[in-house]
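Quick one: structure tokens for this chain, please?
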Amino acid sequence: MAPGTRKRSMAAPRDGFLSFKTDLDSSGPKNKRKKRLNKNKKKSWNKHSDVHDVEEFLEDVRLQERTLGGLISEKPDDNLFFVDAGDESRDSKLDKDKPLQVDVILQPDSRIPAPTDGLASDKPDGRRRHKDKPLRIDLILQPDSRVPAPKDVLAHQIPNAKKLRLIAQRAQQLEAHGVVPRRQRLLQARLQRSLAGKGKANKPAANNDPQRGFYDLWSGAAPETADPWYLQQTKKMLVKRPARLNVKPSTLPAVEVPAPGASYNPDFLSHQALLLQGHEIELKKQKAELRLERQLAFPKEQIATRESAFQEEVEGLIEESEDEGPHDEYTPLYQAASGEKKTERQRKWERQLREREKRWKALRQARDRQQQLFRLRSLKTEVLQQEETTGRRQEARRAKKLEEESLPRRLGKLKYQEPDLDLQLSSEMAGSLRRLKPEGSILKDRFKSLQKRNLIEPRERAKFVRKHKLKYVEKRAFKEVTV
């Protein structure tokens, strides 16, 4: 037998055995080669990785934490099981408390509770205990998870806690040595002054007064008497409060009451008055925009036309004639004054004219003064009218000043902008509070109120300005461009 023939017969499969290579069988499906996957990127890793078992395990852990407050494997046996010892004393007690069969038969079958009076209400019964139970709505609103809420770290932090702790320790040390704090000494001095002078200011003694007492500034003990000179020299006297700090910056109230038409169900006239007010505000805004457009608009006189364009094109091509030239255009309309010298007669005549004009003015002034004697009544009436006009102007200025006190002043580089009026049209009105649409913001309203009452200056939101320029870095490992 040839070697090649033996190999072929041995390679042939026998009956009753399965071949390891299924591709030899032409009838069965061909095995595909397993695809190799590249998992060096996060996208490919998430796509071709099976983490279903990990997610099920984590979901089971979360379920145990919500229902039991922790893992079952970590719970002690006392929390999971209890031993039923079968207490005989407890069973006998239950049998004693159990009613007899005769008593059960004699009990009424009606489920309607019997009427109770005031005397019997003092006895505790099942209905009384049922009333003490929480309501169903309260039980629904209670959290069903036993996982404790995350601790708010910021809620337990105190600003400048270390500094305050050091100050408190220093105060305790001083108190142990018998040193009184400065604030407490000032309060005691004010109390002594109020009790001694009863509100009258004591004038400090002169610096060269021999009767003035002397104090040791370096001693730790407080002085026996609160001398104004001592308090003034040791800088422990309170600074006098300026009078301007006692005046309010604005006469406006802290909370302004809205108009009656702003209610959720106003009457017709009040709502129409509010709509008219909003209409006037919009008209003012529209007029301001139109005025700005007119000021920035290009003048119609300077708009190029066909005639002006043609004139510019042919300018300099047409020769000007000798008669019509720039000489005629710039010819002066008057002749230059002659350089002849005036004669003595002309000078004398001009001097006489000046003297005659002066005498005429003096005569006219004297005549006017004489005429005023005959118009004393009219002058008195004019004076009264002028006084009335002056009084009206003073009243107007006083009213304007009072009105300006309630208006916002210019505290910064920005002007105060009145917020938009919150109103609803007649078609948007809601008849009930449930269908009412909220408008405006309480935070913005309070912020605008502070600006209107001159407590803070008008300001605008700060714009984000990038300090450094963005850098683009190319990662060589994954060939990705990130910011």
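The longest strand covers residues 473-475.
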